[in-house]
Amino acid sequence: MSSVSDLVADFGQTIGLKDLALDEKNCCTLQFDHVVVNLEYLPESEEFYFYSRVWAVPENGETRLRTFTYLLETDCFFRGTSGGVLGVDMARDAIIYTNKVGTDGWRNANVFGDYVQAFVNLAEEFEAQIREITTASFGNDGETSQDSSELSIRSGMAIRV
């Protein structure tokens, strides 16, 4: 785990967070502009889960149908998710983008940082797409939440649609 700890610490240095580290549960939460990114490292499989709440679940029937259709179309063959998944956590009223990636190719903080940047860019894109769907004809139906720190992959909080 020390190499992963070093990787996270080095990434922290590159973005100006000299004390960035995983906590005792191998997790940390970062915020880039308004996008909250949760990281969980799974030492047994040497993988990271990245996840972010991108929008609230729409209440309106037509808006919900359009949003869920978008999620399913985007998830189909990972067409627009770069191998990740857009899912719905009804208990938390959240649409979540998550991706699981191995650490094999991550030799330095720059590679890790490139992945984080790509993840954030996709989360922002999904948020924009869902915002467009939910506000197109029916009014604003679900702003993104700043607090997604209570989500946890290990406790089964991200559910795939």
Structure report:
By secondary structure, this protein is of the alpha+beta class. The protein has helices spanning about 1-15, 60-75, 110-135; strands at about 25-30, 35-40, 45-55, 85-90, 95-100. The chain has a single domain, classed as Yope Regulator, Chain: A (2-Layer Sandwich), CATH 3.30.1460. It contains three helices and five strands, in the order αβββαββα. α1 crosses α3 and α2 packs antiparallel against α3. A five-stranded antiparallel sheet has the order 1-2-3-5-4.
Using the CA coordinates, give the radius of gyration. 16 Å
From the spread of the alpha carbons, the general shape counts as elongated
Q: What is the CATH C level class, in words? A: Alpha Beta
H/E topology pattern? HEEEHEEH
* CATH fold category name: Yope Regulator, Chain: A
Strand order of the largest sheet: 1-2-3-5-4
In round numbers, the mean pLDDT is: 85
**What structural class should be given to the helix and strand makeup?**
alpha+beta
Q: How many alpha or pi helices?
A: 3
Report the uncertain regions: 138-161
So, CATH architecture? 2-Layer Sandwich
Number of separate structural domains? 1
